[in-house]
Specification:
Blueprint lengths: L2 E4 L8 H11 L3 E3 L6 H11 L11 E4 L2 E4 L1 H11 L7 H25 L12 H29 L14 H16 L1 H7 L4 H11 L2 H7 L23
Parallel strand pairs: 1-2
Antiparallel strand pairs: 1-3, 3-4
Helix pairs in contact: 1-3, 1-6, 1-9, 3-4, 4-5, 4-6, 6-7, 6-8
């Protein structure tokens, strides 16, 4: 099947978690909005065409007649089809649970630079952002990373994966989380990472997987920037 991914063309954002799964699996897909006329197609599916089950916002995936929205939901669908999730129901639910926890962390990361409202510019909420980022780096990021460190430690199958003994889509998403946090808070992460060696080791193994390594070095991988979820504002990076 050829998949169609619909997401904003200039940012990694939440769409990147889906891209990583598609790239790792070598799936046949098109990043629609990055092609000529793609944004118009995306908006037609969001707002114009008669779609029985419309998505609230990008990302969403078209797979045959299915249109699937929400990052964790897309990955739940793709996981079994791309061999990036366990075969058992219990394993698939566990992978989905981890992805939902990652989604919570993504939201909290976003709110470090937009703590009041997404409709306001960062410059309109800078004092609140400094307070929110300080708390995030002191309490929330360590709590999340500590949780994933513990999951890796407790995985009975071992081998440094979050779920079972093979790579799964939550591993790819945790890789992206660490990439994003390193971009947004390089000074803070240099200090924090020392406490979570298993998370760092997983990140490094994912980065060396052949398909992912080729993707990360290619033009398909968009650069981080100050329009996405992970943004680097030096005044928010606790030293």
């Amino acid at each position: 099947m050829r998949y169609e991914l619909y997401y904003w063309p200039g940012i990694q954002g939440r769409g990147e978690f889906v891209r990583l799964a598609l790239e790792e699996a070598g799936a046949d897909y098109v990043d629609v909005a990055r092609r000529a006329g793609g944004l118009e197609r995306m908006f037609r599916l969001l707002e114009g065409e008669r779609v029985a089950r419309p998505s609230f916002a990008p990302p969403f995936l078209r797979a045959g007649r299915l249109i699937i929205g929400q990052t964790a939901n897309i990955l739940l669908y793709l996981g079994a089809r791309l061999r990036l999730a366990p075969a058992s129901e219990a394993g698939r639910l566990w992978a989905h649970q981890l992805q939902l926890t990652i989604a919570d962390l993504v939201d909290e990361t976003h709110d470090t630079h937009h703590p009041i409202a997404s409709s306001l510019y960062y410059e309109d909420q800078r004092p609140e952002a400094k307070r929110r980022a300080a708390d995030f780096l002191k309490r929330r990021a360590p709590k999340y990373l500590g949780y994933f460190e513990r999951v890796l430690e407790l995985n009975p199958a071992g081998d440094g994966h979050l779920v079972g003994a093979r790579l799964s889509y939550p591993d790819l998403s945790l890789f992206q989380i660490l990439e994003g946090l390193r971009y947004a808070f390089p000074a803070a992460l240099q200090r924090l990472e020392r406490k979570f060696p298993r998370v760092v080791a997983l990140h490094d193994r994912v980065a060396e997987r052949p398909r992912l390594k080729a993707y990360l070095a290619s033009g398909r991988r968009l650069a981080f920037n100050e329009q996405g979820i992970f943004r680097h504002y030096p005044e928010l990076d606790a030293r």
